[in-house]
Amino acid sequence: MKVTTEKKPRSVLELTVELDKEQIEKALDRAARRMSQKYNIPGFRKGKAPRFIVENYFGREALLEEASDDLIQKAFQEALKQEGIEPYAQAHLTAVNLGHPPFNFTVEVPVAPTVELPDYRAIRVPFEQDEVTDEMVNHAMEHLRDRHVVLRSLEEPRPAQYGDQLTVQIETYVDGKPLESRGEGEEIPQSTLVLDPERIVPGLYEALLGVSPNTMVDVTVRMADDHENEQVRGKDVRFVVNVLEIQERLLPEWDELPALENFEGTLDELREKTRQELIAAARKSAEDRVFLEYVRQVVAATTFDLPEALIEREADSILREREEEYERYGVRPEQVYEAQGTTREALIERLKPAAEERAKRGLVLREIARAEGLAPDETEIAQEIEDIVASMEEEQRDSARIILGSELRSFVAAGIVDRKLRRRILAIATGDPSFEQQTTPAVADETHEAAGATPAAEIAETPTGPVDSIPEAAPAVSEGNDTSASTEDGAAVEAAAHKPGME
Predict the structure, then answer these.
(1) What is the pLDDT of residues 12-68, one digit of tens each?
(2) Residue 37, exposed/middle/buried by CB under 10 A (0-12, 13-18, 19+)?
(3) Distance (Å, rounded) from C-alpha 131 to C-alpha 291?
(4) From CA 160, how far away is CA 166, in angstroms rounded?
(5) pLDDT number for residue 33
(6) Dmax (CA) of the chain
(7) Cis bond leading into 102, ω under 30°?
């Protein structure tokens, strides 16, 4: 069989398959038999009419049409096998000529993405770790103490004073417009503010100091030029605050803190432990910056040819992550789309640019891992499984060991590759091979007291700085960047397991 191929953009391979006359004739014979079995032809029992009678009765065009699907599908599969082509997604039939020589058809076949890495080992990113100051340690210790605060309602009404906690309904206006939109009749949500000049933006703190319950405060404040929310950065923001309740905050004595934290040691030792945790957090934050900047530079210098199917699949994956989040809160995705006046298909289109960037990052990391030979060996996988199992209840360990060694084995291996790749990239980016001998310490995910506060309250608060949680860097190969098939990705499984036909 003569097959010619032409490479097209977006990882599409155009196949032109030429058929000989004998193939056409055999296909017409089979089509004639099928048609004689399906239809009544005068003078013949079903299935007994010879081909020339069938062709005369229905016409050659009808016979060709009956033959084409079977003929093209068989020839297409043979062409794929002959040329060693693995379709990445559904193929598209673009042209057919079975009526006269040369008999042929043309198919566009999406194939796997191609990635040409730059000289990634020549890229350098400086490692710059922030200093942990005594002030930061003090702030972290205050934060620990704050976790054990006891709230007490006031026995007698009094004006709000430093350290109190206020339950409020708060609205913010920027450029004369509400920062948050609410439905008609929807009540303003409640949030809490701690009356502390380090926790509330200047201007609002002074306006709330001395207020009484059931009081409205209306104040306009100039926000800092470096405020973390760019919507209000450097602008005048109007706060309208309804003070609902004032509570006294009772903090434990400092010498009680170690026991409250289940720490076996003195307050000074707890302080030193906190300092070391902040240092570890600062180091991890610096490593994250290096990792992400390095990947950004490699992606920018890489040549990609990505199939549209990959981008659509990645966009669908992003949207499904959002949908799972909606469902966790008991909201059906369809309700969200209806409220937004959009459809799932429209959102997929809108997500494609972000999906393409995410796919590129995943592919780059996968190619670096492959180029560096970072696949785990059997010993590493076995040790990883034992480490995971050791953290479980004893009665769960045997069944978990079996599952991790079979169905979840690929995920165990991906986790090992993630860690290896992160350390290797840090070593390459900084030129410091010692990163390969280090492990990144875990950092507790502490959130400040306003967790669950409304966005308006978050703007009213002053960011707490370095003691807040430090975001994890994007996984190297597994999780969101995985562009291979997984049991949770129906589309990917279908593309990998099903031999695509044609549309």
Answers:
(1) 999 998 888 777 777 777 777 777 777 777 767 777 777 777 667 777 777 677 767
(2) exposed
(3) 19
(4) 8
(5) 76
(6) 108
(7) yes
